[in-house]
Amino acid sequence: xxxxxxxxxxxxxxxxxxxxxxxxxxxxxxxxxxxxxxxxxxxxxxxxxxxxxxxxxxxxxxxxxxxxxxxxxxxxxxxxxxxxxxxxxxxxxxxxxxxxxxxxxxxxxxxxxxxxxxxxxxxxxxxxxxxxxxxxxxxxxxxxxxxxxxxxxxxxxxxxxxxxxxxxxxxxxxxxxxxxxxxxxxxxxxxxxxxxxxxxxxxxxxxxxxxxxxxxxxxxxxxxxxxxxxxxxxxxxxxxxxxxxxxxxxxxxxxxxxxxxxxxxxxxxxxxxxxxxxxxxxxxxxxxxxxxxxxxxxxxxxxxxxxxxxxxxxxxxxxxxxxxxxxxxxxxxxxxxxxxxxxxxxxxxxxxxxxxxxxxxxxxxxxxxxxxxxxxxxxxxxxxxxxxxxxxxxxxxxxxxxxxxxxxxxxxxxxxxxxx
Length: 420
Ligand code: SAJ
Prior knowledge:
By secondary structure, the chain is of the alpha/beta class.
């Protein structure tokens, strides 16, 4: 590090950039945060922050008074951290690198010899080494002689962002010839996890195979659930027992895989090649769970047409308000396509103002329903009582895609409870 207290400019103030900027400011750095979204910048500058995680929201608010400044123009800094979105364009079968391109194009005019650019956004392998490097060199800088360049994947679990940012192990990849030492020193100053170094392309690849591995594991669990139904067995019990083996660790079946990472990142691995088979099949198995749940309900109700269905949960997983790629929204579409009478949605976390959806409270959502489908594993749902459902619902079918409800209790209370 050429300075004892280097300045850091974070590009992209979303799910990762914002908390990272706050953590860096908390570690004592002067941090600038830039986002192309003017409205977001204005909100942050006026201290208007609304995050899913209360501890994180307080932490970010505090950092804005102490070391972290949201800026309208990209500032010179010893480190530029790129945390912009890299969505996958399924029509083109290609990652959309436009935000990354715009970030790099914004950085090069303020670069000074000795500065370092670090990409954290999830990208196809080779992006930092080839694409970002070429873009910086095009503007007249020699990488790595004049400008350091690396990639460090973020691995935080939404819902536990602050703890994981500070405690997860970190992988740091640098382009050939670039010393990882300054980047290691930076991350080491705010994370207690172990830091490992490699080349940038390996680091990019590792991030993708971690998420692809989890997606494949969940697909396996979902296939086990379907097989168990064929053999009239309880898949959860079987998986629990299988996992007692020291080398087996099967994840949990459910209504499918949502969020902005697992359904998307594995696709990056197949860009420019025809190799993924298992990874693509896993995607199809997980996406297919929506139809599987829909068919379960169809069979339980003896047809879906004109039935009133309630979905418990809109978020992609328990304890968060994020609905991106949520299986619940996919189920909503599925049921709408089957001419159900109505589909109502309840969720204790999701704010209707943030989604194009009517979110009802639990009692309202259940009133007169023929069936309820528990889709999201919000912790509150473990305490749901059949008495309340019996009071509100007209029908008696409950599909529990997360195995959160006690079958004996619900069946004894007169419900027809089906589990995935
Ligand atoms: N799910 C299951 N069964 C399980 C576990 C999860 O059906 O046993 C479902 C969830 O309900 C959800 C989806 O999978 O719909 C994804 O949830 P998740 O908790 O597995 O993962 P994310 O998307 O919230 O976060 C992942 C994490 N990656 C890994 O664990 C390898 C996180 O560490 C990454 O930082 C994040 O992706 C990311 O940003 O890439």
